[in-house]
Fold this sequence. Notes:
The mean pLDDT is 88. The longest helix is centred in the middle third of the chain and has 20 residues, at 122-141. The protein is built from 14 helices and eight strands. Strand 4 and strand 5 form a beta hairpin. The protein has three domains: 3-50; 61-161, DNA polymerase, domain 1; 170-356, hpI Integrase, Chain A, CATH 1.10.443.10. The protein is mainly α.
Amino acid sequence: MAQIYKRSGKWSARIQFTDNAGNRHSKSRAGFPTKVLAKKWAVDQEALLNQGVAINKSISFIQYYKDWVKDYKEKNVAEVTFNRYQYTGEALEDFFRDVNIKDITRQQYQKFINYYGATHAPVTVKKVNSIIRSCVKSAILDDYLTKDFTQRVELTSNHARIRKVEYLNLDEIHRLLAAATKNIERRPGFTGRYMIVTAIYTGMRLSEIQALTWNEIDFIHSTITINKSWDMNTRSFKPTKNDSSKRTIGINPKLLRLLRILRGHSSSNLVFMNQYGTIPTSNAVNKTLRSLLEALNINRSGFHFHSLRHSHVALLLAHGVDIYTISKRLGHSSVATTSNVYAYLIDEYKDQTDKQIASILEQI
């Protein structure tokens, strides 16, 4: 039974209850301007108790978020994804401070999105919102919340922050391949160039290339099987980014010839083990890549090893390969993922495709 009483001109309400362990608890709130509002609060709290919600549980939003990341995400996501969880937490802490998770409203969360979106690109805001929504759903399951305050918010962002991914055109790809493979057989211990060529011809992620072993290269059937990736911190194998990243792709004779050269000088089962007995790091292969591009007078600000994956997509699109085939080759979970990530490239080749379609229809 709720207690409703007046003190210092304001109304207060108190409810008492017993938890599943038989322990007695009470919860109260003061400062209601009317008796009706005090009663309503008490009725609402009792309704939550009847639904099985532990109304006495209390925690700040940022503390719950940190605990959630540690318990559910830290050991189960890739390093780059974990870093995204980290900077999302920093943004939440900067905005909400120590606000109790129960006290956050949809309007307050919209203000956070507006605040964060003012300095971040649309894709970043979308990813951050997705992470927070997952956290809030978990808080509901843990009985800290009864409503999802992230529902139906309007994602706002700074379109000026959109960064177009750099990639090479066909002529530049040909020039880079020529430079990377020039006299390559004379220095098999310097495997960075082989990794660059492999990325251009396959579109594989750097961590997938680093993890390649000779067992996964089928010289007879001209395929590479991708079933793991490389952890640069521990210098050991780790799972692929996701299950769809496990795949077998066809490779071309030129790449096979270069890999045969490398195999002839290799004393390790790791394909790209260098003369120092290590796998080239991201910094090392990017240094080699920048050196090659500078020698070719190809200026691309922000171009890095992962940009070769985008260049591979551009190469395939330019030769009319359909998006479904590209998606499977890249190891994406769906065509929608490929379309979203490479929308800018697809749009660039749309005009070319439209002209081809018009030409075909004209011949009917």
